[in-house]
Amino acid sequence: MGIEVGRIIELWPEIQTAFFQTLVMIGISLSAALILGLPLGILLFVTDKGLFWENKAFNSVIGFIINIVRSIPYIILLVALIPLTLAITNTTIGPIAASVSLSVAAIPFFARLVETSLRETDKGVIEAAIAVGATPWMIIIDVLLPEAKASIIQGITLTIISLIAYSAMAGVVGGGGIGDLAIRFGYYRYDNTIMVVTVVILIILVQLIQQLGDYTAKAIDKR
């Protein structure tokens, strides 16, 4: 045990750097998911049959594209997006480069979660808003989002947890972060201590995020 503790202390700067890189990857890709995935999820809902912006062609095309991206395993998507990553970041390694593929994976994933959250909204509330003359934008901002906010928070939590898993996979191709540390030291150098430490860090991180997400969702759910 003394040797294991000594090994952890020896590699503590590496562990801290890897943890920070993981947070950077998650932060960038989550921001992309919120900025692009949220409105995309709203559009998927309001353009569906029977809604105020019904557009079957648009809904089908966007839904098809989202399903294609979501059906590709992340490790394959990571490799397939290397040209795009190189064009955007001028490199294919490091946390910033890995954030490109993470963002592409997170946007459609979160969009579907938002759409599902909005489908839980009572249609009677939407009809009542239309009846009193509310505009589509007013319905989205004042009815749909407030009604679905607790469920959307849970969707954000699930997205973050999925991104943690994806970011670990990004380490396989030099994406940095906890996964990269586990590969370089835990796998290639057969260092079981570091492998265990990285797993423990990821478990603790997931548990904290899940608990925070559950608490926040319950706190803002007034239904």
UniProtKB/TrEMBL annotation:
Read off the PROSITE patterns from this record. Answer: ABC_TM1
Keywords, A to Z? Answer: Cell membrane, Membrane, Transmembrane, Transmembrane helix, Transport
Q: Where would I find the ABC transmembrane type-1 domain in this sequence?
A: 19-213
Give the record's membrane topology. Multi-pass membrane protein
Alphabetical list of Gene3D superfamilies matching this protein: MetI-like
Q: Where is it located?
A: Cell membrane
Q: What is its main location?
A: membrane
Tell me one GO biological process term. Answer: D-methionine transmembrane transport
Q: Which InterPro entries match?
A: AA_ABC_Transporter_Permease, MetI-like, MetI-like_sf
**Transmembrane helix among the record's keywords?**
yes
GO cellular component terms attached to this protein's record: plasma membrane
- Whether Cell membrane counts among this entry's keywords is yes
Give TM segment ranges: 20-46, 58-86, 92-113, 125-145, 151-178, 190-209
Cite the PANTHER family for this sequence.
ABC TRANSPORTER PERMEASE (PTHR30450), D-METHIONINE TRANSPORT SYSTEM PERMEASE PROTEIN METI-RELATED (PTHR30450:SF1)
Q: Which family does it belong to?
A: Belongs to the binding-protein-dependent transport system permease family. CysTW subfamily.
| Protein name, UniProt field | ABC transporter permease
